[in-house]
Amino acid sequence: MSTDHVLGGVSQLEGNARKEALKLLDDTLAQLATNDGPSYKAVNVTSVTGQVVAGTLNTFEVELDDGSSKRQCTVKIWTRPWLKKDGTNITIKFAGEDGELDRTW
């Protein structure tokens, strides 16, 4: 099985890449809580993928805990570190709900 990555393609993250993505998830959720967003903690990450786009797009299948309940959701974090403003975007879509939380800073 080839481990080559296709530019723009989605790949499952493993090893150090997965650890770095999980740290990004924790850091981004913490930043969301300090801005105008809700406070969530990732408690069970079932899948982490990465994709090189104009920046990096990480997608997490995760259970989030808001302190009173745990809910399954998809979290997408798009980072463009070269931008001084609006370089990070997070979207959170909870399973079974139509809307999604979408914040950029």
UniProtKB/TrEMBL annotation:
Belongs to the cystatin family. Residues 5-95 form the Cystatin domain. It comes from Drosophila rhopaloa (Fruit fly). This is Cystatin domain-containing protein. PANTHER family: CYSTATIN-LIKE PROTEIN-RELATED (PTHR12319:SF2), CYSTATIN-RELATED (PTHR12319). It comes from the Eukaryota. Gene3D superfamilies: 3.10.450.10. Coiled coil: none annotated. InterPro entries: Cystatin-like, Cystatin_dom, Cystatin_sf, Prot_inh_cystat_CS. SMART domains: CY.
